[in-house]
Specification:
heterodimer; A: 272 residues; mainly alpha; 13 helices; 77% helix; globular; B: 331 residues; alpha/beta; Rossmann fold; Alpha-Beta Plaits; 2 domains; six-stranded mixed beta sheet; four-stranded antiparallel beta sheet; 11 helices; 36% helix
Amino acid sequence: MLAITSARSALAYARAEARTMIVDRGALAVDMVLATAVPILLQVAVWSAIFASGSDVGIDLASLISYYVFVVGLSRINNGYDVVEQFSEAVHRGTLDPHLVRPLPYWLQRLAGFVGGSTVYLVVMVVALGIDVVARPLPRDVCVFDILAFLLVALAVLLVSQVLTFFVAFTLALLVAWSTRPDLALSLLILLQTVLGGTVLPPGLWGGSLRWFMTHNPFAYMLAAPAEFLSSRDVGLAIPSLLGALAYIAIFAFASWILWRVMMRRFEGVGG
Amino acid sequence: MEDTLSGVPATIELTGVSKTFRQRRGSPLDALTHVDLVVRPGEIHGLLGRNGAGKSTLVKLVCGLQRPTAGSVRTLGQAPDRRRQEVARQIGVVFGQKSSLWWDLSLADNLSTLRALYRVPIEEYKKRKQRIVDGLNLGGVMNRPIRQLSLGERVKSELAGALLHAPRLLVLDEPTIGLDVVSTCHLRSWLSSVVANDGVSVLLTSHDAGDIAALCHRVTLIEQGTVAFVGSVDDLRGTVVGGVSVRLTATERSLSDAELTRLEVVSQWEGCCVDVTNDHSRVSLSGPAERHDDLIQLALELKPSHNGLVLETSAPTLEDALLNRFQQTDR
Protein backbone atom coordinates (compact mmCIF):
# COMPACT_ATOMS: atom_id res chain seq x y z
CA MET A 1 0.00 0.00 0.00
CA LEU A 2 2.81 2.35 0.97
CA ALA A 3 4.59 1.53 -2.29
CA ILE A 4 1.48 2.40 -4.34
CA THR A 5 1.04 5.67 -2.44
CA SER A 6 4.71 6.50 -3.00
CA ALA A 7 4.45 5.65 -6.69
CA ARG A 8 1.46 7.97 -7.08
CA SER A 9 3.25 10.73 -5.20
CA ALA A 10 6.33 10.19 -7.38
CA LEU A 11 4.14 10.52 -10.44
CA ALA A 12 3.04 13.95 -9.21
CA TYR A 13 6.68 15.03 -9.09
CA ALA A 14 7.35 13.59 -12.54
CA ARG A 15 4.40 15.48 -14.02
CA ALA A 16 5.38 18.74 -12.33
CA GLU A 17 8.92 18.50 -13.67
CA ALA A 18 7.71 17.68 -17.17
CA ARG A 19 5.44 20.74 -17.03
CA THR A 20 8.37 22.86 -15.84
CA MET A 21 10.38 21.79 -18.89
CA ILE A 22 7.52 22.62 -21.25
CA VAL A 23 6.91 26.04 -19.65
CA ASP A 24 10.42 27.16 -20.67
CA ARG A 25 9.71 26.67 -24.37
CA GLY A 26 12.55 28.88 -25.63
CA ALA A 27 15.26 27.00 -23.77
CA LEU A 28 13.67 23.70 -24.72
CA ALA A 29 13.66 24.55 -28.40
CA VAL A 30 17.28 25.74 -28.34
CA ASP A 31 18.30 22.65 -26.39
CA MET A 32 16.53 20.28 -28.73
CA VAL A 33 17.58 21.86 -32.00
CA LEU A 34 21.01 23.35 -31.41
CA ALA A 35 22.45 21.14 -28.66
CA THR A 36 21.20 18.02 -30.41
CA ALA A 37 21.37 18.76 -34.11
CA VAL A 38 24.75 20.54 -34.19
CA PRO A 39 26.81 17.71 -32.58
CA ILE A 40 25.17 15.17 -34.93
CA LEU A 41 25.92 17.29 -37.99
CA LEU A 42 29.53 17.74 -36.85
CA GLN A 43 29.98 13.99 -36.46
CA VAL A 44 28.41 13.38 -39.89
CA ALA A 45 30.83 15.90 -41.44
CA VAL A 46 33.92 14.50 -39.71
CA TRP A 47 33.17 10.82 -40.34
CA SER A 48 32.06 11.40 -43.92
CA ALA A 49 35.44 13.03 -44.58
CA ILE A 50 37.27 10.12 -42.92
CA PHE A 51 35.36 7.52 -44.94
CA ALA A 52 35.85 9.56 -48.13
CA SER A 53 39.62 9.38 -47.61
CA GLY A 54 39.32 5.58 -47.79
CA SER A 55 40.07 4.83 -44.10
CA ASP A 56 38.72 1.57 -42.69
CA VAL A 57 37.45 2.00 -39.12
CA GLY A 58 35.86 -1.46 -38.88
CA ILE A 59 32.28 -0.26 -39.12
CA ASP A 60 30.17 1.10 -41.96
CA LEU A 61 29.31 4.80 -42.12
CA ALA A 62 25.54 4.34 -41.86
CA SER A 63 25.86 2.32 -38.62
CA LEU A 64 28.31 4.82 -37.19
CA ILE A 65 26.04 7.79 -37.95
CA SER A 66 23.12 5.84 -36.51
CA TYR A 67 25.13 5.34 -33.29
CA TYR A 68 25.88 9.07 -33.07
CA VAL A 69 22.25 10.01 -33.66
CA PHE A 70 21.22 7.80 -30.74
CA VAL A 71 24.09 8.64 -28.41
CA VAL A 72 23.57 12.40 -28.87
CA GLY A 73 19.82 11.96 -28.38
CA LEU A 74 20.48 9.94 -25.24
CA SER A 75 22.88 12.58 -23.95
CA ARG A 76 19.94 15.04 -23.96
CA ILE A 77 17.78 12.64 -21.93
CA ASN A 78 20.47 11.24 -19.64
CA ASN A 79 21.96 14.52 -18.48
CA GLY A 80 22.59 14.71 -14.75
CA TYR A 81 23.55 18.40 -14.80
CA ASP A 82 20.30 19.61 -13.21
CA VAL A 83 20.44 16.94 -10.49
CA VAL A 84 23.84 18.20 -9.32
CA GLU A 85 23.08 21.88 -9.81
CA GLN A 86 19.69 21.94 -8.06
CA PHE A 87 20.86 19.90 -5.10
CA SER A 88 24.00 21.98 -4.58
CA GLU A 89 21.97 25.15 -4.75
CA ALA A 90 19.46 23.86 -2.19
CA VAL A 91 22.27 22.94 0.21
CA HIS A 92 24.13 26.21 -0.21
CA ARG A 93 21.02 28.35 0.18
CA GLY A 94 19.72 26.23 3.05
CA THR A 95 16.46 25.55 1.23
CA LEU A 96 16.40 21.78 1.58
CA ASP A 97 14.06 21.66 4.61
CA PRO A 98 10.75 22.31 2.82
CA HIS A 99 11.44 19.37 0.51
CA LEU A 100 12.36 17.06 3.36
CA VAL A 101 8.96 17.47 5.02
CA ARG A 102 7.10 16.20 1.96
CA PRO A 103 5.48 12.73 2.19
CA LEU A 104 8.02 11.24 -0.21
CA PRO A 105 11.74 10.58 0.42
CA TYR A 106 13.90 13.32 -1.04
CA TRP A 107 15.85 11.01 -3.36
CA LEU A 108 12.58 9.69 -4.80
CA GLN A 109 11.32 13.25 -5.34
CA ARG A 110 14.46 14.03 -7.31
CA LEU A 111 14.45 10.73 -9.24
CA ALA A 112 10.80 11.13 -10.21
CA GLY A 113 11.44 14.75 -11.20
CA PHE A 114 14.47 13.75 -13.27
CA VAL A 115 12.63 11.00 -15.13
CA GLY A 116 9.57 13.22 -15.59
CA GLY A 117 11.60 16.13 -16.93
CA SER A 118 13.42 13.82 -19.33
CA THR A 119 10.22 12.45 -20.86
CA VAL A 120 9.95 15.72 -22.77
CA TYR A 121 13.20 14.78 -24.53
CA LEU A 122 11.68 11.50 -25.68
CA VAL A 123 10.70 13.54 -28.73
CA VAL A 124 14.40 13.63 -29.62
CA MET A 125 14.58 9.83 -29.43
CA VAL A 126 11.46 9.39 -31.54
CA VAL A 127 12.97 11.70 -34.16
CA ALA A 128 16.27 9.79 -33.93
CA LEU A 129 14.45 6.48 -34.47
CA GLY A 130 12.58 7.99 -37.42
CA ILE A 131 15.80 9.24 -39.02
CA ASP A 132 17.43 5.86 -38.46
CA VAL A 133 14.55 3.97 -40.07
CA VAL A 134 14.62 6.27 -43.11
CA ALA A 135 18.42 6.05 -43.44
CA ARG A 136 18.55 2.31 -42.85
CA PRO A 137 15.20 0.80 -43.92
CA LEU A 138 13.98 -2.24 -41.97
CA PRO A 139 14.25 -5.67 -43.67
CA ARG A 140 11.01 -6.73 -45.36
CA ASP A 141 10.61 -9.86 -43.21
CA VAL A 142 10.34 -7.91 -39.92
CA CYS A 143 6.87 -8.34 -38.39
CA VAL A 144 4.93 -5.91 -36.19
CA PHE A 145 5.51 -8.00 -33.07
CA ASP A 146 9.29 -7.82 -33.55
CA ILE A 147 9.02 -4.05 -33.78
CA LEU A 148 6.80 -3.84 -30.69
CA ALA A 149 9.15 -6.15 -28.73
CA PHE A 150 12.10 -3.99 -29.74
CA LEU A 151 10.33 -0.78 -28.70
CA LEU A 152 9.35 -2.25 -25.32
CA VAL A 153 12.89 -3.44 -24.64
CA ALA A 154 14.16 -0.04 -25.81
CA LEU A 155 11.89 1.67 -23.30
CA ALA A 156 13.20 -0.57 -20.51
CA VAL A 157 16.81 0.14 -21.52
CA LEU A 158 16.07 3.88 -21.61
CA LEU A 159 14.43 3.84 -18.18
CA VAL A 160 17.23 1.84 -16.55
CA SER A 161 19.85 4.12 -18.11
CA GLN A 162 17.93 7.09 -16.71
CA VAL A 163 17.91 5.64 -13.21
CA LEU A 164 21.64 4.99 -13.50
CA THR A 165 22.25 8.57 -14.67
CA PHE A 166 20.28 9.86 -11.70
CA PHE A 167 22.19 7.85 -9.09
CA VAL A 168 25.58 8.72 -10.59
CA ALA A 169 24.66 12.44 -10.62
CA PHE A 170 23.09 12.29 -7.15
CA THR A 171 26.20 10.64 -5.72
CA LEU A 172 28.35 13.33 -7.29
CA ALA A 173 25.99 16.01 -5.96
CA LEU A 174 26.28 14.60 -2.44
CA LEU A 175 30.06 14.41 -2.74
CA VAL A 176 30.33 18.11 -3.53
CA ALA A 177 27.53 19.31 -1.25
CA TRP A 178 30.01 20.96 1.08
CA SER A 179 32.07 22.75 -1.54
CA THR A 180 31.50 26.46 -2.02
CA ARG A 181 30.32 26.13 -5.61
CA PRO A 182 29.30 23.13 -7.71
CA ASP A 183 31.04 24.39 -10.87
CA LEU A 184 33.91 21.91 -10.67
CA ALA A 185 31.53 18.96 -10.24
CA LEU A 186 29.35 20.16 -13.10
CA SER A 187 32.34 20.51 -15.44
CA LEU A 188 33.60 17.09 -14.36
CA LEU A 189 30.19 15.54 -14.98
CA ILE A 190 29.96 16.99 -18.49
CA LEU A 191 33.50 15.81 -19.29
CA LEU A 192 32.88 12.29 -17.99
CA GLN A 193 29.53 12.00 -19.78
CA THR A 194 31.08 13.18 -23.04
CA VAL A 195 34.31 11.17 -23.03
CA LEU A 196 33.50 8.07 -20.97
CA GLY A 197 29.88 8.03 -22.13
CA GLY A 198 30.95 7.54 -25.73
CA THR A 199 29.62 10.76 -27.22
CA VAL A 200 33.00 11.58 -28.75
CA LEU A 201 33.96 8.10 -29.90
CA PRO A 202 32.10 4.77 -29.69
CA PRO A 203 33.73 2.42 -27.11
CA GLY A 204 34.52 -0.16 -29.81
CA LEU A 205 36.79 2.29 -31.63
CA TRP A 206 39.12 2.80 -28.65
CA GLY A 207 42.27 0.73 -28.87
CA GLY A 208 43.87 -1.85 -26.55
CA SER A 209 43.04 -2.06 -22.88
CA LEU A 210 41.21 1.26 -23.04
CA ARG A 211 38.42 -0.44 -24.99
CA TRP A 212 37.38 -2.58 -22.01
CA PHE A 213 37.30 0.45 -19.73
CA MET A 214 35.39 2.57 -22.23
CA THR A 215 32.84 -0.22 -22.63
CA HIS A 216 32.33 -1.05 -18.95
CA ASN A 217 32.52 2.26 -17.08
CA PRO A 218 29.22 3.56 -15.59
CA PHE A 219 28.95 6.44 -18.07
CA ALA A 220 29.13 3.97 -20.97
CA TYR A 221 26.03 2.21 -19.56
CA MET A 222 24.27 5.57 -19.43
CA LEU A 223 24.87 6.48 -23.08
CA ALA A 224 27.03 4.23 -25.27
CA ALA A 225 25.51 0.84 -24.38
CA PRO A 226 21.87 1.92 -24.98
CA ALA A 227 22.96 3.71 -28.18
CA GLU A 228 24.74 0.60 -29.45
CA PHE A 229 21.65 -1.47 -28.68
CA LEU A 230 19.32 0.95 -30.49
CA SER A 231 21.67 1.27 -33.42
CA SER A 232 22.17 -2.51 -33.73
CA ARG A 233 18.41 -3.24 -33.56
CA ASP A 234 19.46 -6.46 -31.81
CA VAL A 235 17.33 -7.21 -28.73
CA GLY A 236 20.08 -9.56 -27.51
CA LEU A 237 22.40 -6.59 -27.01
CA ALA A 238 19.93 -5.15 -24.50
CA ILE A 239 20.80 -7.83 -21.93
CA PRO A 240 24.44 -6.83 -21.25
CA SER A 241 23.35 -3.19 -21.35
CA LEU A 242 20.63 -3.79 -18.75
CA LEU A 243 22.75 -6.03 -16.51
CA GLY A 244 25.69 -3.63 -16.46
CA ALA A 245 23.43 -0.66 -15.74
CA LEU A 246 21.61 -2.50 -12.94
CA ALA A 247 24.90 -3.47 -11.30
CA TYR A 248 26.07 0.14 -11.34
CA ILE A 249 22.67 1.32 -10.08
CA ALA A 250 23.10 -0.94 -7.03
CA ILE A 251 26.60 0.43 -6.39
CA PHE A 252 25.69 4.11 -6.79
CA ALA A 253 22.40 3.80 -4.89
CA PHE A 254 24.31 2.32 -1.95
CA ALA A 255 26.99 5.02 -2.18
CA SER A 256 24.41 7.80 -2.27
CA TRP A 257 22.54 6.24 0.68
CA ILE A 258 25.74 6.31 2.77
CA LEU A 259 26.64 9.84 1.65
CA TRP A 260 23.09 11.06 2.33
CA ARG A 261 23.27 9.84 5.93
CA VAL A 262 26.64 11.52 6.44
CA MET A 263 25.41 14.74 4.85
CA MET A 264 22.21 14.90 6.86
CA ARG A 265 24.17 14.53 10.07
CA ARG A 266 26.19 17.60 9.13
CA PHE A 267 23.28 19.51 7.65
CA GLU A 268 21.03 19.12 10.69
CA GLY A 269 22.96 21.64 12.74
CA VAL A 270 21.90 24.54 10.51
CA GLY A 271 19.21 26.71 12.07
CA GLY A 272 17.73 30.17 12.12
CA MET B 1 -0.24 10.44 24.79
CA GLU B 2 -2.40 12.94 26.56
CA ASP B 3 -1.94 16.42 27.75
CA THR B 4 -2.24 15.98 31.46
CA LEU B 5 -3.87 19.40 31.89
CA SER B 6 -6.87 18.89 29.65
CA GLY B 7 -7.07 15.13 29.16
CA VAL B 8 -7.13 15.63 25.38
CA PRO B 9 -4.55 13.81 23.22
CA ALA B 10 -1.77 16.26 22.48
CA THR B 11 -0.90 17.22 18.91
CA ILE B 12 2.74 17.60 19.85
CA GLU B 13 4.34 16.20 22.96
CA LEU B 14 8.02 16.52 23.78
CA THR B 15 9.19 14.88 26.98
CA GLY B 16 12.68 15.44 28.35
CA VAL B 17 14.05 16.09 24.86
CA SER B 18 17.71 16.85 24.41
CA LYS B 19 19.58 17.31 21.18
CA THR B 20 23.35 17.42 21.01
CA PHE B 21 25.30 18.06 17.84
CA ARG B 22 28.69 16.46 17.55
CA GLN B 23 31.21 18.89 16.15
CA ARG B 24 34.34 18.02 14.26
CA ARG B 25 36.30 20.54 16.24
CA GLY B 26 35.51 21.53 19.79
CA SER B 27 33.11 20.09 22.31
CA PRO B 28 29.61 18.83 21.45
CA LEU B 29 26.94 21.51 21.13
CA ASP B 30 23.83 21.13 23.27
CA ALA B 31 21.08 22.66 21.13
CA LEU B 32 18.25 21.55 23.43
CA THR B 33 18.37 20.28 27.00
CA HIS B 34 15.50 18.47 28.77
CA VAL B 35 12.76 20.25 26.85
CA ASP B 36 9.11 19.48 27.65
CA LEU B 37 6.43 20.87 25.36
CA VAL B 38 2.76 20.16 24.77
CA VAL B 39 0.69 21.62 21.93
CA ARG B 40 -3.01 20.92 22.24
CA PRO B 41 -5.49 20.38 19.39
CA GLY B 42 -6.76 23.68 18.03
CA GLU B 43 -4.07 25.63 19.82
CA ILE B 44 -1.75 28.21 18.27
CA HIS B 45 1.47 27.76 20.18
CA GLY B 46 4.25 30.30 19.82
CA LEU B 47 7.90 29.39 20.01
CA LEU B 48 10.02 32.31 21.14
CA GLY B 49 13.72 32.74 21.54
CA ARG B 50 16.76 34.48 20.22
CA ASN B 51 18.72 33.34 17.16
CA GLY B 52 20.47 30.10 18.06
CA ALA B 53 18.23 29.43 21.06
CA GLY B 54 17.12 26.08 19.63
CA LYS B 55 13.79 26.92 17.95
CA SER B 56 14.71 25.56 14.52
CA THR B 57 16.09 22.38 16.07
CA LEU B 58 12.82 21.93 17.93
CA VAL B 59 10.81 22.47 14.74
CA LYS B 60 12.97 19.92 12.90
CA LEU B 61 12.46 17.41 15.71
CA VAL B 62 8.69 17.90 15.54
CA CYS B 63 8.74 17.38 11.74
CA GLY B 64 10.96 14.31 12.02
CA LEU B 65 13.93 15.85 10.24
CA GLN B 66 16.09 15.16 13.26
CA ARG B 67 16.24 12.50 15.95
CA PRO B 68 16.48 13.51 19.61
CA THR B 69 19.63 12.55 21.47
CA ALA B 70 17.48 11.84 24.53
CA GLY B 71 13.79 11.98 25.43
CA SER B 72 10.71 11.40 23.33
CA VAL B 73 9.05 13.37 20.53
CA ARG B 74 5.46 12.54 19.55
CA THR B 75 3.80 14.39 16.69
CA LEU B 76 0.14 13.45 16.14
CA GLY B 77 0.77 10.43 18.35
CA GLN B 78 3.71 9.11 16.32
CA ALA B 79 7.48 9.25 16.52
CA PRO B 80 8.10 11.61 13.57
CA ASP B 81 11.69 10.54 12.90
CA ARG B 82 10.62 6.90 12.50
CA ARG B 83 7.32 7.49 10.68
CA ARG B 84 8.26 10.58 8.74
CA GLN B 85 6.14 9.86 5.65
CA GLU B 86 2.96 9.21 7.66
CA VAL B 87 3.50 12.29 9.78
CA ALA B 88 4.34 14.36 6.71
CA ARG B 89 0.96 13.53 5.18
CA GLN B 90 -0.80 15.03 8.20
CA ILE B 91 1.20 18.18 8.70
CA GLY B 92 1.69 21.37 6.70
CA VAL B 93 4.94 23.28 6.99
CA VAL B 94 5.84 26.79 5.87
CA PHE B 95 9.37 28.08 6.15
CA GLY B 96 9.06 31.84 5.68
CA GLN B 97 12.25 32.28 3.67
CA LYS B 98 12.33 28.94 1.87
CA SER B 99 10.02 27.98 -0.94
CA SER B 100 8.71 24.48 -1.39
CA LEU B 101 6.75 25.26 -4.53
CA TRP B 102 7.69 24.72 -8.17
CA TRP B 103 9.18 28.07 -9.09
CA ASP B 104 8.39 28.03 -12.80
CA LEU B 105 4.86 26.67 -12.52
CA SER B 106 1.73 28.69 -11.90
CA LEU B 107 0.05 28.60 -8.50
CA ALA B 108 -2.79 26.61 -10.07
CA ASP B 109 -0.33 23.98 -11.34
CA ASN B 110 1.41 23.91 -7.96
CA LEU B 111 -1.82 23.28 -6.10
CA SER B 112 -2.83 20.62 -8.58
CA THR B 113 0.53 18.87 -8.08
CA LEU B 114 0.17 19.05 -4.31
CA ARG B 115 -3.31 17.56 -4.59
CA ALA B 116 -1.81 14.57 -6.39
CA LEU B 117 1.09 14.36 -3.95
CA TYR B 118 -1.15 14.31 -0.87
CA ARG B 119 -3.91 12.28 -2.56
CA VAL B 120 -6.65 14.81 -1.85
CA PRO B 121 -9.98 13.64 -3.38
CA ILE B 122 -10.93 15.87 -6.29
CA GLU B 123 -14.22 17.17 -4.84
CA GLU B 124 -12.62 17.98 -1.50
CA TYR B 125 -9.74 19.61 -3.36
CA LYS B 126 -12.04 21.90 -5.31
CA LYS B 127 -13.85 23.04 -2.17
CA ARG B 128 -10.70 23.57 -0.13
CA LYS B 129 -8.87 25.32 -2.94
CA GLN B 130 -11.75 27.73 -3.45
CA ARG B 131 -11.92 28.52 0.25
CA ILE B 132 -8.18 28.98 0.65
CA VAL B 133 -7.76 31.01 -2.54
CA ASP B 134 -10.67 33.27 -1.63
CA GLY B 135 -9.52 33.65 1.97
CA LEU B 136 -6.00 34.60 0.96
CA ASN B 137 -7.04 36.78 -2.01
CA LEU B 138 -5.01 34.69 -4.42
CA GLY B 139 -7.62 34.47 -7.18
CA GLY B 140 -5.86 37.06 -9.33
CA VAL B 141 -2.49 35.30 -9.36
CA MET B 142 -3.55 31.70 -9.88
CA ASN B 143 -2.15 31.53 -13.41
CA ARG B 144 1.10 33.36 -12.76
CA PRO B 145 4.37 31.47 -12.16
CA ILE B 146 5.51 31.54 -8.53
CA ARG B 147 8.72 33.34 -9.52
CA GLN B 148 6.66 36.32 -10.75
CA LEU B 149 4.76 36.79 -7.48
CA SER B 150 5.51 39.38 -4.82
CA LEU B 151 6.93 38.19 -1.50
CA GLY B 152 3.53 38.54 0.16
CA GLU B 153 1.83 36.56 -2.59
CA ARG B 154 4.52 33.90 -2.41
CA VAL B 155 4.12 33.44 1.33
CA LYS B 156 0.37 33.23 0.90
CA SER B 157 0.90 30.66 -1.86
CA GLU B 158 3.12 28.62 0.46
CA LEU B 159 0.37 28.75 3.08
CA ALA B 160 -2.22 27.69 0.53
CA GLY B 161 -0.03 24.73 -0.41
CA ALA B 162 0.52 23.80 3.22
CA LEU B 163 -3.21 23.82 4.01
CA LEU B 164 -4.55 22.14 0.88
CA HIS B 165 -4.49 18.61 2.32
CA ALA B 166 -6.27 19.67 5.53
CA PRO B 167 -3.33 19.03 7.87
CA ARG B 168 -3.96 18.44 11.55
CA LEU B 169 -0.83 20.40 12.42
CA LEU B 170 0.55 23.51 10.77
CA VAL B 171 4.18 24.37 11.46
CA LEU B 172 4.99 27.97 10.59
CA ASP B 173 8.60 29.08 10.78
CA GLU B 174 8.79 32.89 10.48
CA PRO B 175 5.77 33.11 8.15
CA THR B 176 5.51 36.91 8.10
CA ILE B 177 9.19 37.72 7.65
CA GLY B 178 9.62 40.49 5.09
CA LEU B 179 5.88 41.11 4.68
CA ASP B 180 4.36 44.59 4.76
CA VAL B 181 1.92 45.64 7.49
CA VAL B 182 -1.20 45.01 5.42
CA SER B 183 -0.13 41.53 4.33
CA THR B 184 0.93 40.67 7.87
CA CYS B 185 -2.41 41.76 9.35
CA HIS B 186 -4.35 39.94 6.66
CA LEU B 187 -2.36 36.76 7.19
CA ARG B 188 -2.82 36.92 10.95
CA SER B 189 -6.59 37.34 10.81
CA TRP B 190 -6.95 34.64 8.17
CA LEU B 191 -4.85 32.20 10.19
CA SER B 192 -6.96 32.86 13.27
CA SER B 193 -10.12 32.07 11.33
CA VAL B 194 -8.65 28.86 9.88
CA VAL B 195 -7.69 27.64 13.32
CA ALA B 196 -11.12 28.55 14.72
CA ASN B 197 -12.98 26.84 11.85
CA ASP B 198 -10.81 23.79 11.16
CA GLY B 199 -9.43 23.09 14.62
CA VAL B 200 -5.92 22.74 13.21
CA SER B 201 -3.05 23.10 15.70
CA VAL B 202 -0.31 25.57 14.89
CA LEU B 203 3.30 25.68 16.03
CA LEU B 204 4.53 29.17 15.21
CA THR B 205 8.04 30.52 15.48
CA SER B 206 8.49 34.20 14.86
CA HIS B 207 10.80 37.04 15.83
CA ASP B 208 7.85 39.36 15.30
CA ALA B 209 6.33 39.81 18.73
CA GLY B 210 3.24 41.19 17.00
CA ASP B 211 2.60 37.78 15.38
CA ILE B 212 2.90 36.01 18.68
CA ALA B 213 0.78 38.52 20.61
CA ALA B 214 -1.94 38.57 17.95
CA LEU B 215 -2.18 34.85 17.31
CA CYS B 216 -0.89 32.62 20.08
CA HIS B 217 -2.96 31.03 22.82
CA ARG B 218 0.20 29.97 24.61
CA VAL B 219 3.92 30.51 24.14
CA THR B 220 7.09 28.67 25.02
CA LEU B 221 10.21 30.75 25.50
CA ILE B 222 13.44 28.93 24.80
CA GLU B 223 16.70 30.29 26.14
CA GLN B 224 20.00 28.56 25.47
CA GLY B 225 18.28 25.32 24.62
CA THR B 226 16.08 25.10 27.69
CA VAL B 227 12.46 26.05 28.31
CA ALA B 228 12.48 29.35 30.21
CA PHE B 229 8.73 29.98 30.19
CA VAL B 230 5.46 28.31 29.19
CA GLY B 231 2.13 30.12 29.42
CA SER B 232 -0.05 32.77 27.82
CA VAL B 233 1.27 35.94 26.23
CA ASP B 234 -0.30 37.95 29.06
CA ASP B 235 1.45 35.76 31.61
CA LEU B 236 4.76 36.28 29.81
CA ARG B 237 4.24 40.05 29.80
CA GLY B 238 3.24 40.00 33.44
CA THR B 239 5.84 37.66 34.90
CA VAL B 240 8.79 38.96 32.98
CA VAL B 241 8.24 42.63 33.65
CA GLY B 242 4.99 43.00 35.51
CA GLY B 243 5.38 46.73 35.31
CA VAL B 244 5.60 49.71 33.15
CA SER B 245 6.94 50.97 29.85
CA VAL B 246 7.84 54.63 29.27
CA ARG B 247 8.30 55.75 25.69
CA LEU B 248 10.08 58.98 24.76
CA THR B 249 9.61 60.28 21.25
CA ALA B 250 11.75 63.22 20.09
CA THR B 251 9.66 65.12 17.55
CA GLU B 252 12.00 68.07 16.81
CA ARG B 253 15.53 66.67 17.08
CA SER B 254 17.17 63.35 17.92
CA LEU B 255 18.24 62.69 21.47
CA SER B 256 21.81 63.82 22.11
CA ASP B 257 24.56 61.52 23.32
CA ALA B 258 24.48 63.22 26.70
CA GLU B 259 20.75 62.60 27.04
CA LEU B 260 21.15 58.99 26.02
CA THR B 261 23.95 58.52 28.52
CA ARG B 262 21.65 59.82 31.27
CA LEU B 263 18.99 57.30 30.26
CA GLU B 264 21.48 54.44 30.11
CA VAL B 265 21.49 54.31 33.90
CA VAL B 266 18.17 52.49 33.65
CA SER B 267 19.89 49.39 32.26
CA GLN B 268 21.77 49.08 35.56
CA TRP B 269 18.57 48.97 37.59
CA GLU B 270 17.31 45.52 38.54
CA GLY B 271 14.76 44.20 35.99
CA CYS B 272 14.89 47.31 33.79
CA CYS B 273 15.96 47.79 30.19
CA VAL B 274 16.50 50.53 27.60
CA ASP B 275 15.85 50.28 23.88
CA VAL B 276 16.97 53.08 21.54
CA THR B 277 16.08 53.31 17.85
CA ASN B 278 18.93 53.64 15.36
CA ASP B 279 18.15 57.28 14.59
CA HIS B 280 17.99 58.16 18.34
CA SER B 281 14.48 59.57 17.91
CA ARG B 282 12.70 57.06 20.17
CA VAL B 283 13.64 55.47 23.46
CA SER B 284 11.74 52.82 25.36
CA LEU B 285 12.36 52.39 29.09
CA SER B 286 10.75 49.44 30.78
CA GLY B 287 10.92 47.92 34.21
CA PRO B 288 8.96 46.44 37.11
CA ALA B 289 6.07 48.34 38.72
CA GLU B 290 8.15 49.51 41.70
CA ARG B 291 10.40 51.41 39.27
CA HIS B 292 7.43 53.27 37.76
CA ASP B 293 8.14 56.57 39.51
CA ASP B 294 11.90 56.42 38.89
CA LEU B 295 11.40 55.86 35.17
CA ILE B 296 8.91 58.74 34.90
CA GLN B 297 11.15 61.00 36.94
CA LEU B 298 14.16 60.27 34.76
CA ALA B 299 12.17 60.92 31.59
CA LEU B 300 10.77 64.16 32.98
CA GLU B 301 14.28 65.42 33.79
CA LEU B 302 14.96 65.60 30.05
CA LYS B 303 11.83 67.60 29.29
CA PRO B 304 13.01 71.14 30.23
CA SER B 305 16.04 70.96 27.91
CA HIS B 306 14.32 69.16 25.06
CA ASN B 307 11.38 70.82 23.33
CA GLY B 308 9.08 68.44 21.49
CA LEU B 309 9.87 65.42 23.66
CA VAL B 310 6.71 63.36 24.02
CA LEU B 311 6.29 60.98 26.95
CA GLU B 312 3.90 58.04 26.96
CA THR B 313 3.46 55.38 29.60
CA SER B 314 1.82 52.03 29.06
CA ALA B 315 1.82 48.45 30.16
CA PRO B 316 4.86 46.75 28.59
CA THR B 317 4.38 45.11 25.23
CA LEU B 318 5.50 41.56 24.54
CA GLU B 319 8.49 43.04 22.77
CA ASP B 320 9.41 45.00 25.92
CA ALA B 321 9.05 41.85 27.95
CA LEU B 322 11.28 39.82 25.65
CA LEU B 323 13.88 42.56 25.38
CA ASN B 324 13.92 42.87 29.13
CA ARG B 325 14.27 39.13 29.54
CA PHE B 326 17.09 38.83 27.01
CA GLN B 327 18.98 41.80 28.45
CA GLN B 328 18.73 40.27 31.92
CA THR B 329 20.21 37.05 30.52
CA ASP B 330 23.10 38.95 28.97
CA ARG B 331 24.11 40.54 32.25
